[in-house]
Design a protein that fits this description.
By secondary structure, this protein is α/β, with parallel strands linked by helices. It has 8 helices and 7 strands. It has a 7-stranded parallel β-sheet with strand order 3-2-1-4-5-6-7, with helices on both faces.
Length: about 260
Amino acid sequence: MNFSISGKVAFVTGAAGGIGSATARLFVSQGVAVALFDLDGEGAERLAAELREQGGRAIGGALDVRELTPFEAAVARTEQELGSLDFMVSVAGGGSRQSMATMSLDDWHRIVDLNLTGPFNAIKSATPALRRRGSGAIVTVGSLAGLRMSMNNGVSYTASKAGVLGLTRHAAYELGRDNIRVNALCPGPVNTPLLQELFAKDHERAQRRLVHIPIGRFAKAEELAAAVAFLASDDAGFITASTFLVDGGISGAYVTPL
């Protein structure tokens, strides 16, 4: 698979695992230099070192995406060490499995700041660099919960992921004339180590979830990475402000359990 993105530079948050690390690996395999940042800075740096050993150009470090000034510094470092910036991929996020009745205000702000302020900071920090470049692509990672809801990840997750879709549309409108495209990726359940651990403890729960996925399995992180690479590529040159569903058909059909 060739996405015609060789020679570009990408910044990826949440890069230490899951969709973020799969995206980093795919980018490097396609000739893209990567700046990898995560709250787990050691994990991001380990991945960057691994990719350098494979011949890629990669830097890594720690970043709390909720903080704008460090985000801007990380983008500046990317331009200085890798020469430019072409793609911003905002993967970092998380949830808190609580209802409205049980969630504290502090917990609400923690998740909303991570899932919504984080992508805002990503877009705001990347925009000057992409404007200097004369073009670019930003991919935010929302969730199917942004269109429906998620009891697994809580009310703050549902609300913040819905906000990501609005943020994406608004940013796409503001940045379109700068030749900067902004799209939101909305995954269904992804077969990450965290999901594997959860369902290993409750096999019946996993089977109940699979009933509602028409394609009959959970997504691979590599499949989400491929969607990110497509949205970043020139092949998606007329796609912006979109909500790009990669959910195995969940959003298109409700299957009644047998």
